[in-house]
Amino acid sequence: MVNLFKRMRKLKTLLNIQVGTGAATLPTVANASKEFPAITRLHLTYARKIYGGHQGARHFWRNCLPRLKYYNPAIPMTVRQTEEQEGPAALTIYFAERASNAASLLSAKDVTDKHAPAPGEAEQAAVLDVKNLDYKDIWAKVKNMTGAQEIQPTPEQESELQKLEQLRQQSDKDRARIAAIRQAKADQERMLQEARGEVEKLRQL
């Protein structure tokens, strides 16, 4: 049973990376188009604490970047967590040669990220202001700017996700049942203690 739970945990971890928001391939030199040039790298900067508009960026780092990296292992992706709560939350997207038209329209003209590496001679960077944005909204903008192609889950992955959800629901029921048993046992012990106390009082009369 322990080995089964270990296997399910590993499967859940793998599925969490393979399926969900951010599971997509970015344009490369091999498949870039005039509309969407190749992506050379990504850099995300946000404050360590979530208040001040940094929550979405943090969730993007936790939920989306691992999936993006899984499907785009050759594209460098760096992250900088700062102590600057009033500072920017920004995602810098680096394009080969030139930025996409969508990136030029959606990029922030008044936001600079001093922590983002400077673009190389053959790169052009577009800065996306992600402050106060939900991570799913950030991902929607990234898709529009880069032309990322989302990876749909396979039937096998859908089946595994369904099994994991069933196991989660059963686990919740088991926890509730065990908690009820423990509470009933505690209540019974308390009543026995109270009864013993009453008997002791009667003996002292």
Question: Would you give an account of this structure?
Answer:
By secondary structure, this protein is an alpha+beta fold. The protein has two domains: 1-18 and 152-204; 19-148, Glutaredoxin (3-Layer(aba) Sandwich). The chain contains five helices and six strands; from the N terminus they run H-E-E-H-E-E-H-E-H-E-H. The chain has helices at residues 2-18, 55-71, 101-106, 135-146, 155-203; strands spanning 24-25, 39-47, 77-82, 90-96, 123-129, 149-150. The strands form two sheets. A four-stranded mixed sheet has the order 3-2-4-5. Strand 2 (39-47), helix 2 and strand 3 form a beta-alpha-beta unit. Helix 1 crosses helix 5 and helix 2 (55-71) crosses helix 4 (135-146). The radius of gyration is 26 Å and the shape is elongated. The N and C termini lie far apart (56 Å). The mean pLDDT is 85.
Q: Which sequence of SSEs, written as H and E, runs from N to C?
A: HEEHEEHEHEH
**Continuous helix count:** 5
Mean pLDDT: 85
Rounded to the nearest angstrom, the distance between the terminal CA atoms is: 56 Å
Percent of sequence in beta strands: 15-25%
Describe the global form.
elongated
Number of domains: 2
CATH architecture of the largest domain: 3-Layer(aba) Sandwich
Radius of gyration: 26 Å
- Helical amount among residues, as a percent range? 40-55%
What is the name of the CATH class of the largest domain? Alpha Beta
- Number of DSSP E strands: 6
Which stretches of 5+ consecutive residues score pLDDT under 50? none
Subcellular location: Mitochondrion
GO molecular function: structural constituent of ribosome
Pfam family, one: L51_S25_CI-B8
Protein name: Ribosomal protein/NADH dehydrogenase domain-containing protein
